C-alpha cells in the first residue's frame, strides 16, 4: 500500500465520526498530490514560471491543516452545545452538566473548589498526623506506666524482703542478748541452769526464751548533752520495763518509780568508778555521761532490782521527742485521770481528749509538788498517767502498723533525733510487727512498794511479792 493510502486510511479511522473533518482532509490530500507531482518532475523539465505559481499555495502543512480543521469543528460544536466540555486533541467527549461534579478536573478549574480540596487534603493530613502522634503518645504512655508498675513491684518486693530479713535478724540479735546476765533468786528459791530454771514454793519454772525485755527511760532534759561530763546529764524521770513475748505478741508493762531504792554504781565526774550505793534509781542516769553510759548504768540498776532478769535493750527519750512521736501517729486519745487544769485548762478529770503536740508532754510529765492533798509519793499519780499514755500510744501504733508495715521503721527514723538506744531498726521492726500480727494484749503490772517520807521520798519494794511477779512475767510453770 502506498504512503498516501496508509495516511488516508489512518485519518479515516480517527475521523470517520466527523464528516466535515473528512471533507477538509480530502482537500488537503488533493493539495499534497499536486505537491507530490511537482516533486516528481525532473529538474530539467521544470517550468520556473509554474514553480512560482506553486509557491503561492497556502503554506499549511498536513498537521497544521488537521489542527485548523479540528479547531473549527470544536468551535462549531461548542456553539451548538454550550453546556458541553471538550478535551483538546482528536478525540472529543461530551459530558452532561449534571455529571460534571464526577470529573475531578472540574474542581481544579474552580478556584473556590480547589481551595476547598486543598483544605480537605490538608485537614486529612493533619488528622493523619494527629492520629500518628496520638498512637506514638499512647505507646509512650503505656511504656511509662509499665515502667512505673515494674518499679513499684520491685520496690514492694524489695521492701518485703527487707522487712522479712529485718524480722529474722531482729529476733536473732534481740533474744541473743538474754544470756549476758547473772540471775539471782529470792530466799527459798532453788536455781539451776544459771538461774533459767527455778524451783520455788513447790513449783518448777523455766525462763521463757521467747521474751524480749526493753527498758524505756524518760530523761528530764530538753535534749541530750554531748556526754563529756558525768553527773550533769539529767535524771531518769520515767522508767518502764516492756516485757514482750515474741511468740504470741503479748506485752506486759512494769512501771518503776523514780524514787525506788536500789543499789547503783556511782562514778566520779571524770568517769572513774567510785562505789556502789543504795540510792534512788533516778540518780543512776546522773552517774554517767548523759548518753549511752548513763543508759547502761540505769539498766544495770534495774536488772539488780529485778533479780538479775536479762534486759535486751534500752530506749531513752528526751522531753522534746514526746510531742513529735505523739503527733507522728495522729495524737493519742486518753481519759484524763486527774485534774491537771493548773497546767492545761482542757486536762480536767474525766475529759476524753486526743493529746496533740506539747499537750502530750504536759499530760505525762506534770506532777503536783505542793498542797494539802499532796501524797508521800507524788510520782505515783503521774506513773498511772504515764502507763495509760504509753499503753494507748502502743495500741494505736500497732493498729496503724497493720495497714502500714513500714510504720515501725518510720517511727524509728523519726525517734532517732530524740532518743539514745542500743535497739537496732531491725529489732524494732521485729518487735512491733510481732505484736501487731498477734494483736496487743497489754497488761500493766504494778510492783507492790511502800513510800517513806524523809529528806527525799524513798520507795521500797516488797521483795517477796516482787519475786512472785518476776516468776509470773518472765517464767513459765513446767511442773
Describe the structure.
This protein has 479 residues and is of the alpha+beta class. Helices cover 47% and strands 18% of the residues. The protein contains 14 helices and 16 strands. The strands form five sheets. It has a six-stranded mixed beta sheet, sandwiched between helices. It has a four-stranded antiparallel beta sheet with strand order 1-2-3-16. Mean pLDDT is 78; it is low at 2-11, 13-18, 38-58 and 88-108.
Blueprint of the fold:
Layout: H1 3-15, H2 19-40, H3 48-54, H4 62-80, H5 104-109, H6 111-176, E1 190-192, E2 197-200, E3 203-207, E4 211-219, E5 236-245, E6 250-256, E7 261-267, E8 273-280, H7 283-286, H8 292-305, E9 313-317, H9 320-328, E10 332-335, E11 352-355, H10 358-365, H11 380-403, H12 407-415, E12 419-421, H13 425-438, E13 441-444, E14 449-452, E15 458-461, H14 463-474, E16 475-477
Parallel strand pairs: 4-9, 6-13
Antiparallel strand pairs: 1-2, 2-3, 3-16, 4-5, 5-6, 7-8, 9-12, 10-11, 14-15
Main sheet specs: 6 strands, mixed
Strand content: 15-25%
Computed over alpha carbons, the radius of gyration is 55 Å
Poorly predicted sequence stretches spanning 5 or more consecutive residues: 2-11, 13-18, 38-58, 88-108
